[in-house]
Design brief:
Helix content is about 45%, strand content about 20%. It has about 160 residues and is an alpha/beta fold.
């Protein structure tokens, strides 16, 4: 299964980029054991439309058009559910076991995600009601994906 991190906005050089690279490397190395064949990043430039609704719609269309067919979508949004790390690992496992060719982990821009995208998402996941910059959310998403892999492979990284 291909794992896709799809985000609005570009990640600039700095400590966040280093952490994203670190967890991405760990994820691909550990993920091979359970069938994660590739970790790919898709970055979409923020829309410059005049209204929030139009920006979200344009960004959603751009994101969705870049995803492969039959891709499972986990969208990160404050209105989602907050699974534990073990529950998140179970969601990932279900996609692996179900033969999903790709799992997209989607992060919205400053205006959030368009309802059309969240309605298409297979899972709507939240890190709580606080607002975080997209650079930090990328780190959190990749760390949780790596943690899910370690849970699924019985690696001692995760401790209950």
């Amino acid at each position: 299964m291909q794992l896709i991190l799809a985000a609005i906005g570009r990640l600039k050089k700095g400590p966040e980029q280093e952490l994203v690279a670190r967890y991405g490397d760990r994820l691909i190395k550990a993920g091979k054991a359970i069938g994660i064949t590739q970790v790919k990043t898709i970055e979409i430039v923020e829309s410059r439309a005049s209204s929030s609704a139009n920006r979200k719609r344009e960004e959603a269309q751009s994101l969705l058009s870049r995803l492969p067919d039959n891709c499972t979508i986990f969208a990160f949004d404050e209105r989602g559910k907050s699974p534990s790390s073990r529950q998140f690992a179970k969601h990932v496992s279900q996609q692996l076991d179900g033969g999903s060719p790709a799992l997209a982990l989607i992060i919205g821009g400053p205006d959030g995600l368009d309802p059309n995208l969240t309605n298409q998402a297979d899972k709507l996941i939240s890190f709580g009601t606080a607002t975080f910059p997209h650079q930090l959310v990328r780190v959190l998403v990749l760390e949780q994906a790596y943690r899910a892999v370690t849970i699924l492979t019985n690696h001692p990284y995760h401790r209950d």
